[in-house]
Amino acid sequence: MSTRAWRHELAGFAAVGLLAYAADLALFTWLRGPAGLDPLTAKALSFVAGCSVAYAGNALGTYRHARVKGPRAYAVFCAVNVAGALVQLLCLAVSHYGLGLTSQHADTVSGAGIGMALATVLRFWGTRTLVFPP
Asked: How many CA atoms lie within 13 A of 10 on its CB side?
């Protein structure tokens, strides 16, 4: 794969990811606020919605030329995204409970900064390797 093609793929993946993140955040905010759901139910529902937006965006956009699509690919995609979420939680747990860095700033850096960066690398690799192989 050429450098230009790889950059194009990465840019598409990032754009879809931002859209999925926005959908997840907007739905979570609405479910927690006006809808009045508890935080775990709201997050579970918004996570599934975000995964669905990301899958659709990648299947119809970034990886539209891939041959493998459908229920199996969606299930693997969701599994890759759950693995990414677990990476974020692990980074937060290690920082907060293992290293004793308990401030809100430390939690944000470890979970939403370092954890998100590592999770994004895992999601990109998993999506292009396991869900939409070249």
From this structure: 11
The arithmetic mean of pLDDT across residues 10-14, rounded, is: 97
Name the average pLDDT for the chain. Answer: 93
Short-list 37, 40, 8, 35, CA closest to 128: 8
Q: CA 50 to CA 54: how far, in whole Å?
A: 6
Structure tokens at 53: 């937006």
pLDDT of residue 128: 94
Handedness of CA 94, 95, 96, 101 (dihedral sign): positive
Number of separate helices (H) and strands (E) present in the chain: 5, 0
**Which pair of tokens denotes residue 89?**
């939680």
Q: Please give the structure tokens belonging to residue 38.
A: 């508890």
Give which of 33, 80, 31 is closest to 54, Cα–Cα: 80
What number of residues does the chain have? 134
77 with 57: CB under 8 angstroms?
no
79-96 pLDDT tens trace? 999 999 999 999 999 999
User: What does the H/E/C string look like for 6-32?
Assistant: HHHHHHHHHHHHHHHHHHHHHHHHHHH
Percent over 70 (pLDDT), the chain: 100
